[in-house]
Write a structure and sequence with these properties.
Length: 119
């Protein structure tokens, strides 16, 4: 799994000019899943994300997690995170999981992230 994690004041996803999902202050996560990923990867990554101290405390020091600030999380599936661009000019996505593998893992990731979050 690969993720890009971005702190946000707010973020949203629009599909066909309609708001599909949105969050306030928290994290925007782009999640790339590869063929070899499994539920152990999901558990480790969710725990790591929830515990990352990347938000400022009252002294301006990055010392708080998304849980500490009661922030929100928006997860977006992003297979392009597994692009190989070493050769040629056309990216290869051979390591990116196909939808039949990626979708269930994505759903488990979102579910686990939500469960981890509430603990």
């Amino acid at each position: 799994m690969r993720v890009v994690i971005q702190r946000v004041k707010n973020a949203s996803v629009e599909i066909r000019n309609k708001n599909h999902s949105s969050v306030g202050q928290g994290l925007l996560i782009f999640l790339g899943i590869e063929n070899d990923d499994n539920e152990d990867d999901i558990s480790w990554l969710c725990k790591k994300i929830i515990q990352l101290r990347i938000f400022d405390d009252k002294d301006g020091v990055m010392n708080l997690s998304v849980a500490d600030i009661n922030g929100e999380i928006l997860v977006i599936s992003q297979f392009t995170l597994h692009a190989k661009t070493k050769k040629g000019n056309r990216p290869s996505y051979i390591k990116a999981a196909r939808p039949d593998i990626a979708i269930p893992l994505y759903e488990k990731f979102v579910e686990k992230l939500g469960f981890t979050w509430r603990k």
